[in-house]
Amino acid sequence: MSESYYSPASEEHIARERRKARELRQSDWWKNRLGEGVCHYCGQRFSPRELTMDHIVPVVRGGRSVRSNVVPCCGACNASKQGMLPLEWEEHLRSLRSDG
Question: Which whole number is the average pLDDT over 69-90?
Answer without folding.
Answer: 95
